[in-house]
Protein: DUF1877 family protein
Organism: Streptomyces enissocaesilis
Amino acid sequence: MSIIVEFFVAPDDASAALVLQTGPRRAFESLSFGNFDPEEVVVEWECLLAGGGFEELVEAGEPRIVAGQDDDGYVVFAISPRLSAALAEAERPELKDAAASWAAQRAEDGEGIDTEIAEVILSELAALVGSARRQGRGVFCWVA
């Protein structure tokens, strides 16, 4: 389980990688969450919002690591263009349905997440992705 999960907007991989040790808060627009595995979750969200299979996405290299390794405590990875598009285009009912499905999946795995909190996370992330896309930037995730 991650301690800190911050999704943030950056112009490119190189800029995103610079926050590996310090986190993005001072440098980039960001959202902070915790208590879930974001590398697994972004793949689940992509499956829920854009379709595809979990194993297929993992085998394709999602999420794409930009800096760090899981074993050193810090990692920065990119949100896939496909997930970004799905989040940016999703209407509130789609986000609500995806949040309910995600919460149910987590409950099956013994990791309870409240459906309302799941909806807040997806809605806030969708807004961040929309903002990033309007600026021609990408969304990344820093994990500590």
